[in-house]
Amino acid sequence: MIRLAMKVWHEVTETLLKLTQQTEETERDETIANIEKCLDVRDQIQSQITGPFTPEEEELGTELVEMEEKIQQKLALFTSQIRTDISKTKSKQSNMKNYVTPYSKVMRDGTFYDTKQ
């Protein structure tokens, strides 16, 4: 007999695994919000899962550990994609500023001063 908390944990983990596979930029904000909801649900359920465990629950637990490793890898990849997009956006902004004001970073240490008036 598997406890309800472990069943819910398994369902939320499967949902989280599916969400981490969605990497489209157009739906990124929605995906991040859904991932946060799943993580919050798992955080609330975690306190309800305590030993002793039945053999069925131990099998489910080993499956959950494997799924957890996959989720950690996918979330790391997801955050690295977000970081690269942020750095690309920042570089585009700085390139645009350089295009608008091309002489803003020119050093003026060799300026000529006319002493005759």
Outline:
This protein has 117 residues and is mainly α.
Description:
- This protein is mainly α and 117 residues long.
- The chain has a domain at 4-83.
- Helix content is 70%, strand content 0%.
- The protein has helices at 4-20, 28-46, 55-100.
- Helix 1 runs antiparallel to helix 2 (28-46).
- The chain starts with a helix and ends in a 17-residue tail after the last helix.
Summary tags:
mainly alpha; single chain; 0% strand; 70% helix; 3 helices; rod-shaped; 117 residues
How many strand segments? 0
Number of helices: 3
Low-confidence stretches: none
What is the mean predicted local confidence, pLDDT?
86
Question: Termini, distance in Å?
Answer: 99 Å
| CA-atom Rg in angstroms | 26 Å
What structural class do the secondary elements suggest? mainly alpha
Order of helices and strands: HHH
Describe the secondary structure blueprint for this structure.
Layout: H1 4-20, H2 28-46, H3 55-100
Helix pairs in contact: 1-2, 1-3
